[in-house]
Specification:
By secondary structure, this protein is an alpha/beta fold. About 35% of the residues lie in helices and about 15% in strands. α1 crosses α2, α5 runs parallel beside α6 and α6 crosses α7.
Length: about 375
């Protein structure tokens, strides 16, 4: 049996296989509202045969958007728009769906990538950003405001509110975004966090706010809720966050009832130097898995089925996540199953697409409207 296509449990959530679709920003919203594009995108991803689909970084407040086109979940309107997309998708797929709740911090108020991605100043149509300290990400960016205690409370409650909305939407798991140089990562890294209060300085202090966010979400949701986190294992920059500090943080996450850890890296410093080779972040995932015993998701240039299989079979991670690779090939899990002698579940409408050479590749999903209505 293929290890990659074996079942996997994360808390109360059982997945059919160990392929996750990583959250990938689509920059296709207006005022945070999910759009028709999301209907197409979610549909393609949830018919891919993967075990889990994670919705893109979803801002918990308007000021937390990377761009003005980011998805949000901060109001009744944004909740209703996402509900419409999810209702359509769930008619045809029973794939578990997670959502990444995020705040961009000082990396907010930017153009969409295909328009250059540069920060837009408040006097030019952008908005004032916030961070752990008043240090800009780029030298020519507008400086962020350092969050005071009232601001910390507002952001923490925004995460809680978004988590409660996700629960009402029937979303299966929550991933807190504390990676890639966004707000919670800005508290963790000494390159961004220059505070002198209880939220800065020592590692214990720098971990405080991300752990408070996790605790607040945990307190608001039922104890069986699946709540994990995405972290950057290292800043890849001198004097920055590194794997040693990350391991301490991971152990603290376990103590605070974190359900899983999704291990990425980088994104905080413009001086980062990343050796991007296939699986370059998997070693970090393996260290965190061994130290904590928590379910761990590995990501980063994992493009070949045999490589993904080896990562799972050798115990380096519990799941592998695909991002750009599955945008390029939305049926990557189908093709991986064919190579590894496994099967995937797909809608019956697609059964006739199976190549004759792969006799048992596809299994039908018999999902009815009654099943959807019953949840």
């Amino acid at each position: 049996m293929s290890a990659l296509f074996s079942p996997c449990s994360i808390g109360q959530l059982t997945l059919k296989n160990r392929i996750a679709i990583a959250p990938m920003c689509q920059y296709s919203s207006s005022d945070g509202l999910a759009s028709d594009w999301h209907m197409f995108h979610f549909g393609a991803m949830t018919l891919s045969g993967a075990g889990l689909f994670c919705i893109e970084a979803t801002a918990v407040e308007p000021a937390g958007r990377i761009t003005a086109a980011d998805l949000g979940l901060w109001s009744d309107e944004t909740e209703a728009a996402l509900a419409k997309v999810l209702m359509a998708v769930r008619k045809y797929s029973d794939m578990p769906i997670a959502i990444q709740l995020a705040h961009a911090g000082r990396k907010a108020s930017c153009q969409v990538p295909w328009e250059g991605g540069k920060q837009v100043a408040p006097n030019n149509g952008g908005w004032q950003t916030v961070s752990s300290s008043g240090l800009a990400h780029n030298a020519d960016d507008h400086a962020p405001l350092s969050l005071d205690h009232a601001g910390l409370h507002r952001v923490r409650e925004a995460f809680v509110s978004a988590a409660l909305r996700a629960q009402r939407l029937g979303i299966d798991a929550i991933e807190i975004h504390a990676a890639h140089g966004y707000l919670l990562h800005q508290f963790l890294s000494p390159l961004a966090n220059q505070r002198t209060d209880e939220y800065g300085g020592s590692l214990e202090n720098r971990m405080r706010f991300p752990l408070e966010v996790l605790d607040a979400i945990r307190a608001a949701l039922p104890p069986e809720a699946v709540v994990g986190i995405r972290i950057s294992a290292t800043d890849w920059a001198d004097g920055g966050w590194d794997i040693a500090e990350c391991l301490t943080f991971a152990l603290a996450l376990k103590q605070h009832a974190c359900s899983f850890i999704h291990v990425s890296s980088g994104g905080l410093s413009v001086s980062q130097k990343i050796p991007t080779t296939p699986g370059y972040q998997v070693g970090f995932a393996e260290q965190i898995r061994k130290a904590t015993g928590l379910p761990v998701i590995a990501v980063g240039l994992i493009t070949e089925a045999a490589h993904a299989e080896a990562i799972i079979a050798s115990g380096q991670a519990d799941m592998v996540a695909l991002a750009r690779g599955i945008l390029y090939d939305p049926h990557w899990p189908w093709h991986a199953a064919a190579q590894l002698g496994a099967t995937v579940q797909v809608p019956p409408q697609y059964l006739r697409s199976q190549p004759a050479a792969y006799k048992a590749l596809l299994q039908a999903l018999h999902i009815t409207h009654k099943d959807v209505a019953a949840g």
